[in-house]
Amino acid sequence: MTAAPTYVDELRAAARHFSRHLAGRPHLGRRRFLTTTGAAAALAFSVNLPATGTAAAAELDARRITENPFTLGVASGDPLPDSVLLWTRLAPRPYETGGGLPTGTRAAVTWELAHDERFTRGVRRGSVIAHPEYAHTVHVEVGALAPGRPYFYRFRAGDWTSPVGRTRTAPPPGAHNTHLSLAAVSCQAYPDGYFTAHRHLAREDVDVVFHLGDYIYEYPVPSTAADRGYPVGTLPDVFNHETVTLEDYRLRYALYKADADLQAAHAAHPFVVTWDDHETEDNYADDIPQNGVPPEEFLIRRAAAYRAYWENQPLRTPQRPTGPDMRLYRRLRFGRLAQFDVLDTRQYRSDQAYGDGWQLPGPLVDDPARTLTGATQERWLIDGWRGSHARWNVLPQQVMFAERRNLTTPAYKLSMDAWDGYRASRQRVLAGAAAAGVDNLLVLTGDVHVAFAMDIKADHRDPGSRTVGTEIVTTSISSGRNGADKPANHATLMQANPHMKFYNGRRGYVKVTLGLDSARADFRTVSAVTTPGAPLATAASFVTEAGRPGLTPA
User: Fold this and answer.
1) What is the pLDDT of residues 460-489, one digit of tens each?
2) Would you tell me the crossing angle of helices 7-22 and 27-36 to the nearest 10 degrees?
3) pTM (whole model) above 0.85
4) Which terminus of the chain has a lower count of CB atoms within 10 Å, N or C?
5) Quick one: CA torsion of 427, 432, 438, 443, rounded to 10 degrees?
């Protein structure tokens, strides 16, 4: 008897079909073909929207839900002066396909927004449908709110009530605000350790959290969760393989979002999220995967990954993906104190030079035809700076911006996955900032699982060149396991990079406080992540003065 074709068999057959039709077509033809053909929809990773699928979805009487459907918590994100975005997902059994709700059913969810945690002073309330096409996730955009103030929110489904979340609107446009606090986080590999840093972050007094990527990892997670050390058999086998399909990615988000520490951070603060690579696949570049499969096949996987990312994050409607495309770069303003230009350095980049990894820099890294952001995003960024009236122009993004040499010798290597592998692209961005009159450029970075404080130089090949900005690199939440205060290459990197002012290898996050006169970065670390509940410490603090770029110890 011939075995029934698996999803991967269907994916590969469709990819071969796409390849035959796209032979000799331009680069973007592959993506357009995938997005618009019935063949892609037939692959059944639920890219159909509720507008076309609702008629076939039966209404579930939420009063018949017998288990808590709010196992994945609540979240808010992308605060505007008059609006907040609220998120939750119905999943009474989150480690099962479909989250434990009857297949193909939709459910009504009510939401409430109030001035107080007990909801005695209500502000708004309403009802929304949790659609099966979106894995029963809910995205509620609540408008007509007062700027610059906190709100509390919760959801109800049947007899069940979600945890209470706290969010905050941005200051009014043009406000002469004098203080803003934020946290930057990144890289939370579930099997590498506990998310203890998120528990501490939930207790911080910050206005907003920026998640700079690697929210999930695509690699297999064993039943013991590896360094978390669960008893054998704790996690089901659905997690012990690499994520490829839409259902794989949805289940992986369920695993991560079921973590109580991560839930606490989301419930305490609004998040602004952007991805790096592991939300899809390690070190991919545009439609070029790491594992060597044809781009047509990879774009199907990318469509699944992007769809699950939007479903499971507090993102607004403009970020909803179409097939394998999703506009994640966007701009947020917090009065006249700060403008945040959130970047996507994965979806549009040129392939990494010289086979990726750490390589000797050659002509390709200075090739002006190569880009990390894509031409459209680069123009959007520089045009946004031209129109900025903010004291601080902040760039939340993924990979190392300042130069990072690995050796003190002339034969040093650079990371081809970072901006060092796209030096012409970096110089265009810095030239755009200079032309726009950006005096206080602050880059927030994740990815590397360690913390750095860096001066950004006009020309990194000349250590004496002018300092034009500041880069604050947050360490990982858990990726890389416990780490060390001074990794083995600490002395070498500090000597090889005079603009590097701080380097620490523990896990944690960074808190940044913006004022009119200065910006302060406090590097928070935990002593261990392989055991829960480790204490929090401040490893170092640095300040950069407005109008005088350059970091000094606080």
Assistant:
1) 888 889 999 999 999 999 999 999 999 999
2) 130
3) yes
4) N
5) -50
